[in-house]
Amino acid sequence: MDRSLAVERVLRGVQPHALLDGLRSALQEHFGARSVDLLMADYSLTELRRVTSLPYTAEPIPVSGTTAGKAFTAQQATFDTDENGVRAHLPVTVRGDGIGVLVVTLPEEPEPPVWAELGRFAEALGHEVFVADRDTDLYVQARRSSRLTLAAEMQWQLLPGRACARPEFALGGQLEPAYAIYGDCFDWSASAHKLAVTLINGMGEGTSAALLTNLAVNALRNARRAGIGLDAQAELADQAVYAQYRGQEHVAALLLEFDLATGEINAVDAGSPRLWRLRDGEVERLVFDEQLPLGTFEDTTYTTERLQALPGDRFVFVSDGVYNVPGAHGEPYGDRDLVQAVVATTSLPASHVPGAVLDELRSRREGDLAADDAMIVCLDWFGSNPSAERASDIATAVAGDTEN
Fold first, then answer.
1. CB-hemisphere CA count at 13 Å for 218?
2. Range of 75's domain?
3. What are the strands, taking DSSP E only, across 10-154?
4. Who has the most CB within 10 Å: 61, 65, 258, 274?
5. Radius of gyration of the chain (CA)
6. Whole-structure pTM value
7. Domain final residue pick, 143, 175, 203
8. CA 235 to each of CA 105, 199, 223, 238, 301: distance values in angstroms, whole numbers, following the listed order
9. Is 388 a domain residue?
10. Is 116 helix (H, G, I), strand (E, B) or coil?
11. Where do the H-state alpha helices sit in 40-111?
């Protein structure tokens, strides 16, 4: 049997909690690997933590300044050598969402195709871990450098992921404080023709804020999955929040829907997080007609606005926990600071922009804990996928020939 097929068969056949053990045995047998480890990125994206049978039992590896960290941030294989042989650090990624690093040590430098094989195993492992999270806590526990608050537990389980990439776009998002977030949240969903992006800022603190946000996000998902328009989605979510809280609590939200073929954007601003656009080197804040937050009054009517995304555009969304952070002299982290942060991160991929801006935010606090939770989401718009359009045209032509 082909050894690549044998390894992939092992990954598909082992129990969810035994993925690493199965892969380790297969790589030892078929590639002579001396060691195999899986490092998971923690919630704050500052550490890589080994997957072990017991949480918190292995020393973390910093993302900054390490070979493994470079593989994770650059999403490229990195290598080093020691007395045990050649060690490869291979990014473990699921559809653009970097979740960790696979570390494989071989006794000697192999031919380049071997590294390519191992890279494919790392990708396959990522998909298996993603599925395994439904049945085991092992990999979720490995991501934690400390215990999450209950509110943070609820919020992280609510997220679609931390990154997503397709030919038309790339997305990345991050929440802070990662282990104690409560009201901020983001959501996204892509189909063949549309990309929906939702930014949420629920009022309040702790578990009550997390409960409010969970209700709002799930109400919006329920409405979106019913296939109705963006304005009606906002109205149904507004009714759901008002029915529960009778106007005592509300949710600020920004709902966006991108047409993947044309770049046209439909938007509903319900007391939203702020949106910035980087186009041709110029940063501009996009201002909408701000409507009432969800749940403020019963039966609020919402209207949709339209704008156009162009290939090369970058959109950065920030919650009030970002732009209201006080600086060293008490001044807020205002528009000028955000413009500078967006420009300074121009060369970074979308998945790394939120973390870079939040790092700068932490430096402004000089190590102090955040007074409010913060959310940053970055979206890079590449435009329609020519190959997909061509495939669609061919399919249409074939269907037409068949009908004729």
1. 12
2. 3-143
3. 35-41, 47-50, 61-62, 78-82, 85-94, 97-106
4. 258
5. 23
6. 0.88
7. 143
8. 55, 16, 9, 5, 6
9. yes
10. helix
11. 67-74
The single-letter code of the amino acid at 214 is: N
- Single-letter amino acid code for the residue at 31: F
**Identity of the residue numbered 397:** A
Q: What is the mean pLDDT of each run of 10 residues along the chain (404 residues)?
A: 88 95 96 96 94 83 95 94 93 95 96 92 96 95 92 94 95 92 94 96 90 97 97 97 95 97 97 90 93 94 97 94 69 77 92 88 61 88 66 40 43
**Dihedral angle of Cα 63, 141, 185, 213, to the nearest 10 degrees:** -160
Name 251's bridge partners.
202, 294
Could you tell me the CA-to-CA distances from 52 to 28, 61, 137 in Å, in that order? 18, 14, 12
* Residues 302, 238 contacting (CB under 8 angstroms): yes
The DSSP bridge partners found for residue 88 are 79, 104
Given the structure tokens 């319900």, which residue do they identify?
Answer: 270
Could you give the number of structural domains in the chain?
2
Burial 46-85 (b: 16+ CB within 10 A, else e): bbbbbbeeebeeeeebebeebebbbbbbebebbeeeeeeb
Structure tokens at 404: 């004729």
Whether residue 161 sits in one domain with residue 113: no
Q: What is the pLDDT of residue 404?
A: 44
Task: Assess whether 320 and 228 both reside in one domain.
Answer: yes
d(CA 134, CA 121): 21
Could you tell me the two tokens for 343? 């420009």
Structure tokens at 162: 């931390």
